Amino acid sequence: MRKTAGALGLCLALAPPCADAFERAPLPSEAAMEPCPREGIGFVRIPGTTTCIRLSGRASASVDVGTYRTETPVQSRLSIDSRSESGLGPVRSFVRIDVGRR
C-alpha cells in the first residue's frame, strides 16, 4: 500500500507539466479552404499551396435475417484525388481504398 501511495504521489507531482503536452498547436493557416472550380465539383484548395484535393467515399452495411450466415456484409470505399501544377505540367495523384466483400 505504501509503494502504491508513493507512486500515486509521484504521478500527481508530474501531472501538471504533462498537461501542457495536450495544448493545441497553432495551425499553419486558419483560413477556410477555397473551392477549385477549374478542377471540378468537390475540389478545395489546400491553404498556402496551389494543390486542390477531393475526399470522397461511401459505406454500406446489410443484415441477413433468417439465414445461418455469421458475418454481416459491410463495404466501404475511400477516395483521395489531388491535383497540382508543376513546371512540367499538371500532376495528379489518386488513391482508392476498398474494404469489404462484394
From TrEMBL:
InterPro entries: Porin_alphabac (IPR003684)
Entry keywords, A to Z: Cell outer membrane, Ion transport, Membrane, Porin, Signal, Transmembrane, Transmembrane beta strand, Transport
Record membrane topology: Multi-pass membrane protein
Ion transport recorded as keyword: yes
Record's subcellular location: Cell outer membrane
Predominant localisation class: membrane
Signal peptide (UniProt feature, chain positions): 1-21
Family: Belongs to the alphaproteobacteria porin family.
Domain writeup: Consists of 16-stranded beta-barrel sheets, with large surface-exposed loops, that form a transmembrane pore at the center of each barrel. The pore is partially ocluded by a peptide loop that folds into the pore lumen.
Function: Forms passive diffusion pores that allow small molecular weight hydrophilic materials across the outer membrane.
Protein name in UniProt: Porin
